[in-house]
């Protein structure tokens, strides 16, 4: 009898392999297969949100606190483990691999140390999950072009402007908003005056002064994505933040915008790992499909052209996995790895688009239906080349460090 089961993906490469990481990978893989996949198969076609019970189940495993220090209730692990779990979850549903980023200390970089410690504990338990409102209709890749205003009024700041692509905003416990407190002085970078603010809210509601409408996406279902209108949203001075993306290692003295950079590098490696998860799903589904589908009296797995296509796909996925593991290791060693983070984000996401596209082709007409998961992988992979900085932005980052402008 032919083996119709998908293969086990390659385990961790020896330089970074530990028993603890192998166990964590296996736990996440089983959770993705047994818990996440059935939910995704049911809810993704409906463009529905993931149930709170699924988020709570991830919280119970401590996965919202993977990178939070143990003294604050987290697992005290690194970027490597964070991406390791995310790859496995994204293999089942991209949005579930993404929701982990809304913990990990996001929304905890307050000016008050005691409050920050309390929020870190809540974040680690999955009780402080947020949305991020950085982009605007006219400011996406160019965050220095943000025009949302934050005006000081006594002990509070008043936020006014429009934010776009704020995922999970309504369901969140808070929304981090990047706003401009002043215009840059002559000779300052355009990012001068940009600061992140913490807008605390009740899940399922927007606070006074904030409204929004859902952006109808073609993929990346599991949570809703919003365009937000801010009209006099009041934020206390104590909720002005020192950094974004939950980087508990952010330097509070470096300024709000400058502290974003390390978080962006982590986010890019995280995106690479998620892209690998989606592409791996396409490879594994193709292996099973090629063995079950027959044409001309033979399983199509016997046709050399299709076998070779699958081999190329698997090799590209393995290559991208090895690369994200290397860059995650560099970040955990304290290296800035800015070029490497841009490179792995570029290569892994572009790979995911090509591999899922090829998977659609190998499925033939069946791939162009909603009866197979491959169309979900195809839709979701396409987004990975866009968010956390488009492929063009990654190429600019890489080339600017190779060829500095005079």
From TrEMBL:
Domain Acyl-CoA dehydrogenase/oxidase C-terminal residue range list: 255-403
Ranges for domain Acyl-CoA oxidase/dehydrogenase middle: 132-232
Residue ranges occupied by any Acyl-CoA dehydrogenase/oxidase N-terminal domain in the UniProt entry: 19-111
Molecular function in Gene Ontology: acyl-CoA dehydrogenase activity; flavin adenine dinucleotide binding
Database matches in InterPro entries: Acyl-CoA_DH_CS, Acyl-CoA_Oxase/DH_mid-dom, Acyl-CoA_Oxase/DH_mid-dom_sf, AcylCo_DH-like_C, AcylCo_DH/oxidase_C, AcylCoA_DH/ox_N, AcylCoA_DH/ox_N_sf, AcylCoA_DH/oxidase_NM_dom_sf
Stored Pfam families: Acyl-CoA_dh_1 (PF00441), Acyl-CoA_dh_M (PF02770), Acyl-CoA_dh_N (PF02771)
Named cofactor requirement(s): FAD
Alphabetic keyword roster: FAD, Flavoprotein, Oxidoreductase
Family listed: Belongs to the acyl-CoA dehydrogenase family.
The protein's name: Acyl-CoA dehydrogenase
